[in-house]
Amino acid sequence: MTARLIKGKDIAAEIRAEIGQGVKELMAASGITPGLVTILVGENPASQSYVRAKQQAAHELGFHSIQETVSGQISQEELLSLIDKYNKDEKIHGILVQLPLPGHIDENKVLYAIDPDKDVDGFHPVNVGRMVVGQPAFLPCTPYGVQQMLIRSGVKTDGAEVVVVGRSNIVGKPIANMLLQKAPGANATVTVCHTRTKDMASHTRRADILIVAAGVPNAVTGDMVKPGAVVIDVGVNETGRTPEGKRILVGDVDFKSVSEVASAITPVPGGVGPMTITMLMLNTLQSARRWAKPA
Length: 295
Ligand code: GUN
Hints:
By secondary structure, the protein is α/β, with parallel strands linked by helices. It has helices at about 10-30, 45-60, 75-85, 105-115, 125-130, 140-150, 170-180, 200-205, 255-260, 275-290; strands spanning about 5, 35-40, 65-70, 95, 160-165, 190-195, 210, 230-235, 235-240, 245-250, 265. It has 2 domains: about 30-115, 3-Layer(aba) Sandwich (Rossmann fold), CATH 3.40.50; about 140-275, 3-Layer(aba) Sandwich (Rossmann fold), CATH 3.40.50. It is globular.
């Protein structure tokens, strides 16, 4: 079998077109422009490039967008008061603090300082709790993107055996929770594997849908996959640079052997990656809609 490709790049473009339309409609109905602030602390090159991409996407969609770049030496108090400023700013509907933060800053204190109703990353425990109990919540962008890829490429999750490899707060735990909800695009039977799982292949081979977010290249190979399974590769691992200095990226899944067994697979790059920023934009639009019409 040669697996069909689930192209996140195409699905992300489709969602961005819908967001663009949504922005026009919101502005016509309420005069409100979705507002996003991205806060970058220090000079981590990967973080700089992610934040640049987020700002560019916001700009292209006609958002009111602000980039706050602050020194890596900023004190925790100063960072908290910057967040407070945007919590109170009526023109801002989404606040994103790029992670990781320098060691002298308590990441949880910073994330918890963001108004949960502007937490477009979906990392605040109020949003995590809302998600777990099935209330409307900001969903973290990467798992939200994975769920949309499944829905929009026609993969049935209802009653499916889903196996998630990885238990991070950013991907593994939230995607597992989202897919077990009693809701459309969910209703799955979910197993989560992690570094202490015994005989991981015995779990992955049962999966109708296998979601891999292990942070390790080749963590899943063809012999670990059930014939006909759908495989979503969330991994982004840099293995080197091209002579022009471009990053060479591979996922967590051995694409060659797995694509001979699976019925569908996401490529890296061009799979889950392009979805993450798109879902951040959708969360910001949804936030602006909520602020325009408080419940
Ligand atoms: N660093 C790596 N991924 C993310 C993300 O999704 N959000 C934020 N804020 N920082 C990150």
